[in-house]
Design a protein that fits this description.
The protein is α+β, with helices and mostly antiparallel strands. The protein is built from 14 helices and 12 strands. Strands 1, 2, 5, 7, 8, 11 and 12 form a 7-stranded mixed sheet that branches. Strands 6-9-10 form a 3-stranded antiparallel sheet.
């Protein structure tokens, strides 16, 4: 049976420092040119794959770091999308939706029982809120166990804690407490072990599993590519990001010399063609599972100035820190993944190069060649670099049938 490999790893086989990957971005003009190239490639794929122009975000970064389990898919689903039409995704540094959601629950008051708990704790209510903010909910937590831990940490008399636990029981059916318990339920996370890791990585579960992704790809569509940067549009003014396109800012990533920077500048200013065929592509819906309460998120979102919803004593966050645009931690989320499989794609730089230049690029572009980058030299797609008859650099990328990559996401704003 062919093993399906999807998504990206938390810890690549060989990590490359992100500062090193960005060394090519020493020239602001080159960075601006590459940003425009990113936007053009994003717009071209948007049209070729018939995606939603308002919500599609091209993903660069971890395309080649695959896994045979749900890990890569869950990491991508849990990533907080950057506010741009093109985003650089790195599993080790992306902000996580689940973490932001856990903080949100700590910033809210329950629909019932809040006054009872406040009365029971008395002068300890504000310290309880402060302690809760600095001690996030973890797997296995309940309000009862957290009150016990709080009481021990703050030397609260047992009678007060007992009254508080009784008050908490009265509010046990509050949707907020049910949401807190679901978020802390160990069964709502999946553990992933990797060679060399001291402890498994635990990720919150999403609906987009390997089986779902594989079925989608098997029923997906094909598309021929014929991209020319000289004629493609870089206009992303009608996207959720209101015209922002970032992503990766180098053509050849990983170089650390002035010569390498010159190669980047030369390539960026000369343009590219991208031709080939994608055998299968598909979109897969992303859904947070039982650990997530959309009702609690909606309650918070729809009551920005309501102190019966937002706990004024909490330091976990405010409406603006969670939902304010463009930097709110829950202002946007991934609603769909864009998957591809079975492709052969040739990227041709219109600049001319010497054999020495080609050898420098081949040996030093450790993080990839535009537009396919990775934070590791380990990748499921193969890369072949050569000079053609016109001394132009041709890079051919091949992903075999049965392997799946994530090329982008559709982004939904919280509403």
């Amino acid at each position: 049976m062919t093993q399906k490999r999807i998504g990206f790893e938390v810890q690549p086989t060989r990590e490359i420092d992100m500062d090193t990957l960005e060394k090519g971005m020493t020239d602001s003009d080159t960075a601006a040119t590459v940003e425009a190239l990113n936007a053009k490639w994003r717009n071209y794929l948007n049209q070729a794959m018939n995606l939603d122009p308002d919500t599609f975000q091209l993903a660069q970064g971890c395309l080649g770091l695959q896994s045979s389990d749900n890990m890569g898919l869950f990491l991508m689903a849990d990533a907080v999308p950057p506010d741009s039409a093109v985003g650089f995704y790195d599993a080790n540094s992306m902000k996580r939706r689940s973490s932001a959601y856990g903080m949100l629950l700590g910033a809210l008051l329950p629909e019932t029982g809040a006054a009872v708990l406040q009365t029971a704790l008395g002068n300890y209510y504000t310290p309880w809120i402060q302690w809760s903010a600095t001690n996030p909910v973890v797997a296995g937590d309940t309000v009862q166990s957290r009150l016990d831990r709080f009481g021990m940490a703050q030397a609260v008399d047992p009678g007060t804690i007992a009254r508080a636990k009784t008050a908490a029981l009265q509010a046990a059916n509050s949707p907020l407490y049910l949401a807190l318990n679901a978020f802390a339920d160990p069964s709502q996370q999946q553990s992933f072990s990797r060679p060399g890791q001291a402890a498994p990585t635990k990720l919150y579960i999403y609906s987009n599993t390997v089986d779902v992704a594989t079925m989608a790809i098997n029923n997906g569509s094909s598309v021929a590519l014929n991209f020319d940067s000289d004629t493609a549009s870089s206009d992303v003014s009608h996207t959720f990001a209101e015209g922002a396109a970032s992503g990766f800012y180098s053509i050849f990533s990983g170089g650390v010399s002035g010569t390498f920077d010159q190669l980047n500048s030369k390539a960026a200013s000369s343009g590219f063609t991208i031709t080939g065929n994608i055998g299968k592509f598909a979109t897969v819906p992303v859904g947070a599972m039982g650990w997530y309460s959309s009702a609690e998120v909606s309650r918070a979102f729809n009551g920005p100035n309501d102190n019966s919803i937002w706990d004024p004593s909490s330091s976990a966050g405010t409406f603006d820190s969670f939902f304010g645009q463009p930097d709110g931690s829950l202002a946007r989320y991934v609603s769909e993944l864009i998957l591809v499989s079975d492709y052969t794609i040739t990227v041709t730089s219109k600049a001319t190069y010497s054999q020495e230049d080609a050898q420098t690029i081949t040996t030093k572009a450790e993080g990839g060649i535009w537009p396919f980058f990775s934070v590791s030299a380990s990748a499921t797609h193969s890369t072949s670099v050569k000079l053609n008859a016109n001394s132009q650099l041709e890079t051919t990328f091949t992903l075999n049938k049965g392997l799946i990559q994530i090329w982008g996401v559709n982004v939904q704003e919280q509403d």
